[in-house]
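Appendix B, Record 12. Input sequence as logged:
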Amino acid sequence: MKKLVIVIGIFFLMPYVSWADYSCTATSGTQEDFNTCVTNAASQSGAVTITIPASAPTWSSQSTVSLSSWTNVTSLTIQGAGPTNTVITVGNTDSALSVTAGTKTFVLKDMGFSDARTTNHHSGMVVVSGTAASSTSGWRVTNVYFTDFDDYPGNDTWAMSVYGYGLIDNCHFTAYGSGGGGIRIFGAGNQFANWDAILNFGDANATFVEDCTFTWPVQNSTWPDVAVDTFSSARWVVRHNTITNTFLQVHGLDSTWDGRSGLSFEIYNNTLSSSNRYIGGPYIRGGTGLYHDNTHIYTGNGAGWTGPNLDVYRVCTGTSADIAHWGYCYDTPSRKICSNMNTDGTYTGRIQTCQTDADCTGGATCNRMFLSTDRDSLCTVGDSNCTKYWDGDSTNPQGWPCRDQPGRGTHQDLRPIYTWGNNTNSGTIGAYASDWSCGTVSTYIQEGRDFCNHSPATDCGSVKAWSYTPYTYPHPLRTLALVPPQNLRIL
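Logged structural output:
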């Protein structure tokens, strides 16, 4: 009986135990107070918590948190007093908060960010990067509200940019005016190495967005901006979200900067609704993925929802000046890469595709190709088996398969896109090859080969059936118990 009394006594003491090795409160919520906490936290050890109390400060510069270089800190939590109580107004700065987590655990929670920027800011109000991918570590953004972001004339605004593998859950994104962009997702690290790695669906190696809301204003004269956009070998999962008057997108190998296409997506169990005149399913310009069991509701006066719209810009003459950077798909067989690209996928300056040395700058030569056994493994012209060009070998259509085009996975292997179980209030919808950019797209992207409107449990052309199981839901990081540190302090 005495033992029972002791146990009960310890239990009632538990709320007074601090699990954090170090904690700091940014007293007034100002950026200066927050930065002081960051400076002090960097030299601590164990788990660190920084609290921003209920307040409404304006942050007009970027606070940078390099958690990956905090030698003795194992994890970091930045928390507010609630998404409507701690609300940071972001002034004219590219981003207000940038956190590099590396392989450590990082959590941002219980606060809001309101956009007051009127200049170009691609990075997003918050930027987070990290490379951990497991049920016990990684970055997480939860119960954070992003409001009032808008695409000002000539500018490109975003709520968030994230890199690598992590979780965004129970967040709210509310665009304003013409509507800015929600989340930009980029791959982790070396995008060429990512395209040359093993690709599995249903694992932790992705950015997960779940149980969030995305609310955009009605647009009847133009397309809305995008809720989630992906780039540079991104792997991403969007599930169990409510998405209103906006859509999802994969950027392909077709931009002026050096990003390759997003690599893979899994989009399922979302509710998408719109009263816009112009709206459509995910706009997929590269990579592979699964789109299934989504509900679409349309109340506008346009054509309504479609399934995934599959496109490849690089087969369309004059589509965009962006194409000049990568070259047209039908330039093959002749297009290589300049030698400022190393065979491990790293590079100096800019990625340059080429047909002759004259296309290369900075003293580089036109001498990088790909192995015949792996079309994502770089090699130097003259090396054994170094025979593959930038795009495919086909002459009908010329250059097929285009590098990173829809229906391609790692190593440029055929990995069809699958869609199934997607419903609208007027019927079912599936993927289709878009001739929106030009009339030749559907010759490069074909149903029954590059995509199939059924699950992978059935053969898709030459690709045999395979079994798919989605990753654990809710994501394990949402239910991860705190691991008590070694030096507990009684408060």
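The longest helix spans residues 2-13.
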